[in-house]
């Protein structure tokens, strides 16, 4: 496993140690993680400027809107591929840089590329299956849809660590992901739910902060609803793009770090059980006497030889 047990995140975790490990690792590798995430965030925001949703606001013809949406397929595809690329690089860096300092950004970029195509294929399959699961969840209850989303999110967090550490085929990666995720099913779901809530709260606070310089535009739109289209222009302003990229770079590394914790926690538990089994093999062996009922003691009431009963 490439000495993966030397990784600082490799250990059995509880919810407290998981959250504290995220913070400790984040502080330890803050500068490289921030710079990688900043480049990722800038590229994503710049690519997003090519999708001008404001044009759809003035359209009333559904066919015209459909034709316009077709123009957005290519830029949205580019954005998705960029996201997968940077996510793969960032995850590889988080896994292998702490083990060997020679795995700098350039090395991680090159080595992570071999995992990009398998990751893309798995994500397509997961998206297809996930869409069906979410739709079925809505038929059951809204709660069912939320559970499906949480379940898929937990699976997603396992995929890249399994793919990169164990270097499996696509089929084995999928089966191994399900196996590890279900090994601690409810803790994994619970930790993921807590983590998502924390990320949403942090993102909401940071988003509110970067909108302060543009608060005048929001006040004008409230006073004059006809100027609501000006709010959409904020997303294309250079200052907003830079501020969004900076705040995004602060939170982007948290997701792959948490994914590593989920993976390492499951693997560490499995390794610990294997060590115990190898250390005490006699505990797992079936003895001949185990196949027969144990004899009664002399004073047992049901012992046929117990004269006191007679």
In words, what does this structure look like?
The chain has 310 residues and is mainly alpha-helical. The chain has one domain (30-279). Helices cover 72% and strands 0% of the residues. α5 (73-96) crosses α8 (142-166), α8 crosses α9 (170-183) and α10 (185-210) packs antiparallel against α13. The longest helix has 26 residues, at 185-210. The radius of gyration is 27 Å and the shape is globular.
- C-alpha Rg, in Å? 27 Å
Give the N-to-C terminal Cα separation.
66 Å
What's the pLDDT, averaged over the residues?
82
Low-confidence stretches: none
Task: Quickly count the helices.
Answer: 14
What letter string, H or E per element, gives the SSE order?
A: HHHHHHHHHHHHHH
How many beta-strand runs?
0
Shape: globular
Number of domains: 1
User: What's the helical proportion of residues?
Assistant: over 70%
Sheet/helix structural class: mainly alpha
Strand content: under 5%
The biggest beta sheet reads: none
Short description:
By secondary structure, the protein is mainly alpha-helical.
Please specify the SSE layout and strand pairing:
Layout: H1 15-28, H2 30-48, H3 54-57, H4 62-71, H5 73-96, H6 105-112, H7 116-140, H8 142-166, H9 170-183, H10 185-210, H11 215-223, H12 229-233, H13 238-251, H14 254-279
Features:
310 residues; mainly alpha; 14 helices; globular
């Amino acid at each position: 496993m490439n000495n993966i047990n030397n990784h600082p995140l490799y250990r059995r975790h509880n919810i407290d140690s998981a959250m504290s490990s995220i913070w400790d690792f984040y502080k330890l590798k803050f500068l490289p993680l921030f710079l990688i995430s900043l480049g990722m965030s800038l590229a994503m925001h710049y690519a997003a400027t090519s999708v001008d949703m404001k044009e759809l606001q003035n359209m009333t013809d559904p066919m015209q809107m459909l034709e316009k949406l077709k123009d957005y397929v290519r830029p949205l595809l580019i954005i998705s591929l960029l996201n997968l690329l940077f996510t793969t690089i960032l995850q590889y860096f988080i896994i292998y840089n702490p083990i060997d300092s020679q795995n700098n950004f350039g090395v991680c970029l090159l080595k992570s590329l071999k995992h990009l195509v398998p990751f893309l294929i798995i994500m397509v399959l997961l998206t297809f299956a996930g869409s069906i699961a979410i739709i079925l969840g809505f038929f059951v209850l809204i709660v069912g849809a939320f559970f499906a989303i949480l379940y898929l999110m937990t699976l997603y967090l396992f995929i890249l660590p399994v793919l990169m550490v164990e270097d499996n085929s696509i089929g084995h990666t999928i089966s191994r992901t399900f196996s590890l995720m279900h090994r601690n099913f409810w803790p994994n779901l619970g930790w993921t739910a807590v983590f998502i809530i924390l990320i949403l709260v942090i993102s909401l606070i940071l988003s509110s902060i970067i909108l302060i310089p543009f608060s005048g535009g929001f006040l004008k739109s409230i006073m004059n609803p006809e100027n609501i289209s000006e709010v959409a222009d904020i997303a294309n302003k250079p200052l907003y793009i830079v501020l969004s990229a900076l705040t995004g770079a602060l939170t982007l590394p948290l997701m792959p770090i948490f994914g590593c914790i989920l993976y390492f926690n499951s693997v560490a538990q499995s390794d610990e059980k294997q060590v115990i089994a190898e250390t005490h093999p006699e505990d797992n062996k079936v003895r001949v006497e185990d196949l027969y009922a144990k004899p009664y003691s002399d004073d047992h009431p049901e012992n046929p030889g117990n004269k006191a009963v007679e």
